[in-house]
Design goal:
10 strands, globular, mainly beta, 182 residues, three-stranded antiparallel sheet
Length: 182
């Protein structure tokens, strides 16, 4: 019988004489551009009843029970403010033909909701982009955590609405691509 021993890993050696290396924002951005991800628009309703939304590629499933996801939103954004005040938000997963919507919601254009079709029924947690999404998740905020210049928002998924065939829009290497383009 072979004996099995667990060994602790030694901490990494400092990168140079007594100093830790810190990646620059540009280095980090370049590194993450090589990790393609899906694209969504996170949306909520502001205290004034107006829709708010922004393009987001920082989305992750967290738990199946209860169904929970997280999104990372820029601190100080009107969308984050609406999410935090209402306690509700939608994650509009964009389909491969929705590049225009992704660019529009990344632009900061204050008229973005007037430039494409959306709806919000009484059971929705926020605006649904009816033409540009393959699936929408209606979420309730369960936890938030500030990290640097963003806030991680955990949302318990209350309802899922499927709209179109789920061929997602992807973002990587600083460009949008469709799933079929690979």
């Amino acid at each position: 019988m072979t004996e099995h021993r667990e060994t602790a890993l030694a901490p990494p050696e400092p990168a140079g004489p007594g100093r830790a290396v810190t990646a620059t924002p540009d280095e980090f951005r370049a590194m993450m551009s090589g990790f393609p991800t899906g694209v969504c628009v996170v949306a909520a309703t502001g205290h004034d009843g107006a829709p708010r939304g922004m393009t987001c590629s920082s989305v992750c499933s967290v738990s199946l029970a209860p169904p929970t996801l997280l999104v990372c939103l820029r601190d100080g954004s009107p969308t984050l403010e609406a999410v935090l005040k209402s306690g509700l938000f939608t994650v509009n997963l964009l389909h491969e033909q929705a590049r225009e919507a992704a660019e529009l919601f990344a632009s900061g254009n204050p008229r973005r909701f007037g430039l494409l079709p959306w709806e919000q029924d009484p059971d929705a947690a926020g605006p649904h982009l009816v033409r540009d999404t393959h699936t929408v998740a209606d979420c309730e905020v369960s936890l938030t955590q500030a990290v640097g210049d963003h806030v991680t928002v955990f949302g318990e998924v209350r309802r899922i609405v499927r709209r179109h065939r789920p061929l997602p829009l992807l973002y990587g290497l600083r460009q949008f691509r469709s799933w079929s383009q690979g």
